[in-house]
Each structure stands twice: as C-alpha cells, then as structure tokens.
Amino acid sequence: MLLERTIPIISPSHKAFPIEVPKQLLSADGQLKDLRGRQLHDLRISVTDRCNFRCTYCMPKEVFGKNYSYLPQASVLSFEEIVRLSRLFVAHGVEKLRLTGGEPLLRKDLERLIAMLSELKTFAGKSLDLTLTTNGTLLAKKAQSLKNAGLARLTISLDALEDAVFKKINDVDHSVQEVLQGISTAQTAGFKDIKVNMVVQRGINDQEILPMARYFKARGIIVRFIEFMDVGNSNGWKMDSVVPSREVLQRINSEMPLLNLQPNYPGEVAQRWAYADGQGEIGVISSVTQAFCNSCSRARLSTEGQLYLCLFAHTGFDLRALLRKGASDAQLQTVIAQLWSQRRDNYSESRSTIKGANHRKIEMSYIGG
Ligand code: SAM
Ligand code: SF4
Ligand code: SF4
Q1: In this structure, what is the dihedral angle of CA atoms 298, 196, 130, 146, given to the nearest 10 degrees?
Q2: What is the pTM of this model?
Q3: Is the pLDDT of residue 352 over 70?
C-alpha cells in the first residue's frame, strides 16, 4: 500500500523553551498535580535517538536515512545527569521509570545506568518500578546483564509473527526469530511479567492479531494491542489505518472469550482483559478511540534533556541547559514543579478539532513513546 507521506525536515537539535533559574524555591512533597488534578507518577526517559530498526510507522527510511543527523554525543544527557533528574522527579512522586528511545539497548553501558537508577527509592521509601521498552533484537545478548543490573521489568515490541510482515514493518530485515529468542532469553534470565506490545495497522498487520493472541496466551505472556497513533509528522498516519481496540477485542473474543478486568492501579494506560478459560490476559491501549488524557500522569525526558509534558507536544523545556548552567537540586526541583503544575495537555481528547498540518509534533523515536 502506498502511503501519502509528507517528508518533513527534522532538525536534530530540537528547539526547547528556555527556562529561567527560579528565585523562589518550592519544596517537593511527592504529590505534584497539574491544572487538571493529574498527579505526576511516571517518567519515560529516552536514552538514545538511534535505532537498528526503521519501522515504517516510527522511523521511515525516507526520513531517517543515511543523511539523517542524530544527536551529537555532547548533547546527550550523561548517566549522572539522568540519575540526578530522575531523583528530583522521584521526590515529586514519580514511582515508575521507563527507559526507551530509539532503541535503548543501543546505548553503551546501559547496565551502568540501570544499576544507578535501581538504587533510587520512591517518596515513600519503596523500590521504583524500573522498566524498559525494547525491540528485543539485543536481548539474547543482554537480558542477563540487564537483570543483574537491577532492571525489574521488560516490554518487548513485536508487530507480527509472520516473518514477511514483520520484516516489511521493521524495514531492515530483522527476523521474528531474533525477537522470540530475546524473549525466551529474558524469561530464562528471570524476567517475570514480560509484556509484548503490538501496534496494529489496518491492512498491514491486523491479520496477525489472532496469531499473536494465540501464541502468547500459550506462553503466559501478556500482549498489549496498541492503536496506531498520529505521533510525529512522518509516519503517514490516517484514521483509516487505526484498528479500534473495540474491534481487536471482538476478533479475539469470538475465538477466545474475554472478561473485563479491573486496572492494576488508577490511570493504567492499558485496559485489561482476561481469557475466560483462566489462561492469561491481554491489554488494549486505545489512545485514539478512547483517549485517557484525564488520567495522564506521564512526563517524558528526551535524550538531550528536554522535558515534554505530552507525547504530542511540539516543544520541550530545556532542563539540560539549566543543569549545565549549574542550577542546584532545589532550583531544578522547583522548575519541575512549576512546569507540571501549569500543565493542561490533552491532545488525544481534542485531536479531531486540531488541524493536523498546523500542529507539528515531536517524533516518537526522539521522545520514546
Ligand atoms: N525501540 C523500542 C521499541 O520499539 O520497543 C522503544 C522505543 S519505541 C518508540 C516505543 C514504542 O512505541 C514501541 O512499542 C512502538 O511500537 C511504539 N510506537 C512507535 N510509533 C508508534 C505509533 N505511531 N503509534 C503507536 N505506537 C507507536
Ligand atoms: Fe525503532 Fe522502536 Fe521506532 Fe521501531 S518503534 S523504529 S524499534 S524506536
Ligand atoms: Fe497524556 Fe498527551 Fe497522551 Fe493525552 S495526548 S494521554 S495528555 S500524552
């Protein structure tokens, strides 16, 4: 299928709002709320803007080709900078950290970062929920060292079991077998509750919904079916390509009956469904057809230290500049509090009223999903 695609010009140095060093300081009490009463709970940290895949819906080759300039090393946050910022977010109530990218396992010595982050404790003094999303190709090599470093959980993206379909999507000839091998190595390394994410696109991989559900049900792994989103400006998104979660559920339910489950915690993004035979569960993430902005508790830190308050934002806030200017912890913490407390974002709820062409957004591979 030919996509009608506008090739955007993407600058590797993303413009960010500068931030003033605050004069008056605010303290952190682990309960930071925005203007809609949404409490900061998750921080997603992109550790690299590079990837060994060129998923057509995320980093299409026409845009992320040989001449694309990735962030220079000096722009990328060091592990020490990431940990320092994470600690400040945790003081504001963050309990969950997700490492992402690009492909996070491409970041050199990632295990060292994981070991450092795993030392952090939540405001209430408990262990953080430290997790990572990966395309799985490097897991066969790295699962054990990630586990040893203190990574608690793993989410692995896999969009099809049929090799030809998968290769067409990743567009660089990586096989399904490599990812399945990665999943099984991760299980052997002791990772429990592994989740598999599948982005469903009509006419591209929707015929894989049932095979994916069957395959992972038999192996006790939760698949989460994600509606294809209009993130970034380069993936040729059209509403017609979205398979609503309702339809995904109908298709699975007709063969393997499902029962609705309660969320694990308030604000959980995936809606949970159990197989009625008691053998496992699935999740659906309906970002397009059932926006969950009203409970959105996620902040995102880009590879170069810009803070994004929404996945669909155009501009971030330059925390790195402040950090490298020598701001104190108290000043950085105050800035985070000011930015979050002024937040009103609800893009998914208002998508249909926003004129696409006028709303430029950050790319998924930059901000990490
Ligand atoms: N490279 C890693 C991976 O693929 O798991 C981590 C980064 S990737 C950007 C994070 C997640 O975002 C993946 O599960 C990917 O499938 C998902 N994603 C990327 N573009 C998307 C889109 N347009 N709509 C929905 N999900 C998307
Ligand atoms: Fe890479 Fe993940 Fe984007 Fe695919 S979805 S191109 S694996 S960053
Ligand atoms: Fe959160 Fe923005 Fe997504 Fe709404 S659109 S759920 S505010 S990230």
Answers
A1: -140
A2: 0.94
A3: no
Q: Return all residues near 42 (Cβ < 8 A) that are at least 6 apart.
A: 94, 95, 96, 97, 98, 297, 298, 299
Q: pLDDT confidence of 13, banded at 50, 70, 90? A: low
Residue 324, CA distances (Å) to 75, 273, 294 in order: 11, 46, 34
Question: How far, rounded to the nearest angstrom, does the alpha carbon of residue 282 sit from its chain's CA centroid?
Answer: 18
Evaluate if residue 69 carries a pLDDT over 90. Answer: yes
Determine what percent of the chain is predicted with pLDDT higher than 90. Answer: 81
Helix (H) and strand (E) counts in the chain: 11, 13
To test the ligand 3 pocket, which listed residue (285, 295, 309, 345) has its Cβ within 8 A of the most ligand atoms?
345
Mean pLDDT, residues 163-190 taken together: 98
| Ligand 1 atom with the shortest distance to the CA of 136 | 5
- What count of residues does the chain have? 369
For range 35-59, the mean pLDDT = 97
Q: How far from 259 is each of 246, 255, 278, 283, CA to CA, in Å?
A: 13, 13, 10, 11
Q: Name the CATH superfamily, with its identifier, for domain 29-367.
A: Aldolase class I (3.20.20.70)
Pairing label, strands 298-301, 306-308: antiparallel
64 lines ligand 2 (CB under 6 A): no
Residue 235 Cβ contacting ligand 1 at under 6 Å: yes
> Which tokens is 217 given?
């049900």
Give the mutation target among 312, 343, 352 for probing the ligand 3 site: most ligand atoms within 8 A of CB. Answer: 312
Ligand 3 atom nearest to CA at 269: 6
